[in-house]
Structure formats: structure tokens, C-alpha cells
């Protein structure tokens, strides 16, 4: 069973050094089938005018695989 991504900091372990994203929320009733993730880059976290991104589970999982994103902390 897949689970929703944890809220908090994710960093890249391959390709782009210093890539850091904050997962602000993740929601879905059945994570095995579909969920949405809202992210923003760490540098923009405190900026009220910065735009984040919303991804579905396939986009998020692809991003994690391509850049080796791993959860660091809340």
C-alpha cells in the first residue's frame, strides 16, 4: 500500500545539488490510486506572494525518482 507523502522538507540526492522542496499538504482518500501534493521550493517558503505547485501522485513519484528526493524533516 502506498501512503501519502509526509509534510516537510525533501532534498535531492541526485542530479541537482541543493534542490529542496517543502511538502505543504498531501491529500487523497485512496493513496494507492490517487492523491494530490502541494509543494513549494524551500527558498520561497516564507514568501506570501510565492506560488507553489500542485502535483498528482504520478507527477510526485516521477519527480522523487528522477531527483532522488528524500524526506528530511517537518
What overall geometry do the principal axes of the alpha carbons give?
globular
Uncertain regions spanning at least 5 consecutive residues: none
Radius of gyration, in angstroms, nearest whole number = 12 Å
Strand order of the largest sheet: 4-3-2-1-5
Q: Please report the number of helical segments.
A: 1
Q: Could you tell me the mean pLDDT?
A: 93
Q: Hey, roughly how much beta strand do the residues contain?
A: 35-45%
Mind summarizing the main beta sheet?
5 strands, antiparallel
Q: Report how far apart the termini are.
A: 23 Å
List how many beta strands DSSP finds. 5
Whole-number count of domains: 1
Helicity level, as a percent range?
Answer: 10-25%
Order of helices and strands: EEEEHE
Content-based structural category: mainly beta
Structural summary, described in words:
The two termini are 23 Å apart. This protein has 74 residues and is mainly beta. It has a 5-stranded antiparallel β-sheet, covered by helices on one side. It has one helix spanning 57-67, and strands at 8-11, 20-30, 34-41, 53-56, 70-73.
